[in-house]
Design brief:
By secondary structure, this protein is of the alpha/beta class. The chain is built from 10 helices and 13 strands. Helix 3 runs parallel beside helix 4 and helix 7 crosses helix 9.
């Protein structure tokens, strides 16, 4: 795919988890589930990409149709169900990857549909993939794997994250990739407080807020709004940013936050950053706006930061809450 060179502006640079990011706009999980195109996506101007979700064993996911465009709502409903090639195939592919760019790559871990002890699957994911990743994500928030989101409860989450962290430390990697948790937008106040306290107790390095929602906002007009699955895209922007801001408050700015959900412009990305995000991600807007979008978002984000007198991206993080 021929592309324009990535947009660059020093104001977009930052250091997170000791890594240098050329810009804070990342590709969200689900687009490159199998690690086929990380370099091609970095070439589109993304500052980082997230491969996955990857499960230990390959699985086909749900029957088609399982992806619905709600064009009139600038939204997507999906019930893919973690279709992916499995950890061995993805590891083999990423081992052969020739790193061409300075961009970073995270790997997002899921569990197989039939697995009962979820921790076992995430530990397999860590053992097979962590050495290939600049960061690791424990995804417990997809709505299309039965029982997955229940892992966000206080007790199961403490068990899961404690076990995953121990497995990661056992590998003795240098550097140890930071460990992130990806959460759903559909959480009660109690859920959010529990998650924040477990994340801080276990010393998890970041929270990705949020995955798709099972809610259907009243504003939706497209008939496919009735399809089962997770909703993403523009209608998720407000709800997911509120959840992000809640986690910023609950973690007192001590945990790195990645804002995702409904970003389709530089202003949207800027809003997430002002609500507490150090990094942002997007997927659905690519469906409607194509690859030129990433450079446009970075250009407009840089404009917002200059316009409002920030010297750097880092100075704007959480500006709305301070
Ligand atoms: C088709 C599709 C597949 C997705 N698959 C995954 C996945 O495997 N793992 C995951 O953590 N999130 C997955 N997501 C969620 C996205 O990473 C993101 O959190 C969500 O779509 C909100 O961002 P957006 O509004 O920019 O799309 C998927 C989203 C879509 C639309």
């Amino acid at each position: 795919m021929p592309t324009a060179p990535p947009f660059k502006d020093d104001i977009l640079k930052s250091q997170v988890w000791g890594h240098d990011f050329t810009n804070p706009v990342g590709l969200a999980a689900g687009f490159d589930k199998n690690g086929d195109v990380p370099e091609a996506m970095l070439d589109q101007g993304f500052g980082f990409v997230e491969v996955g979700s990857v499960t230990p064993r390959p699985q086909p996911g749900n029957p088609k149709p399982r992806l619905f465009r709600l064009e009139s709502d600038q939204a997507v409903v999906n019930r893919m169900g973690f279709n992916n090639d499995g950890a061995d195939a993805v590891a083999a592919r990423l081992t052969k990857r020739r790193k061409m760019s300075t961009g970073l790559m995270g790997i997002n871990l899921g569990k197989n549909k039939e697995t009962e002890q979820a921790l076992d699957d995430y530990v397999i994911g860590i053992n097979k993939l962590a050495h290939l990743a600049d960061y690791i994500v424990v995804n417990v928030s997809s709505p299309n794997t039965p029982g997955l989101r229940a892992l966000q409860g206080r007790k199961p989450l403490a068990h899961l994250l404690g076990g995953v962290k121990a497995a990661l430390e056992n590998l003795v990697l240098d550097p140890v990739p930071p460990l992130l948790l990806k959460v759903a937008p559909d959480l009660t106040e109690e859920d959010k407080a529990d998650i924040a306290s477990v994340v801080m107790d276990v010393e998890i390095d970041g929270i990705i807020a949020t995955n798709t929602t099972i809610e259907r906002p009243a504003s939706l007009t497209h008939p496919s709004k009735l399809e089962a699955g997770g909703l993403s895209g523009q209608p998720l922007m407000g709800p997911s940013t509120r959840v992000l801001a809640d986690f910023n408050k609950l973690t007192e700015g001590r945990v790195v936050l990645v804002g995702v959900g409904g970003i389709s412009s530089g202003e949207d990305a800027y809003q997430k950053i002002r609500a507490g995000a150090s990094l942002v991600q997007l997927y659905s807007a690519l469906v409607y706006h194509g690859p030129g979008l990433v450079n446009r978002i970075n250009r407009d984000l840089a404009h917002c930061l200059h316009r409002d007198g920030f010297a750097s991206l880092s100075d704007a993080i959480g500006a709305d809450v301070r």
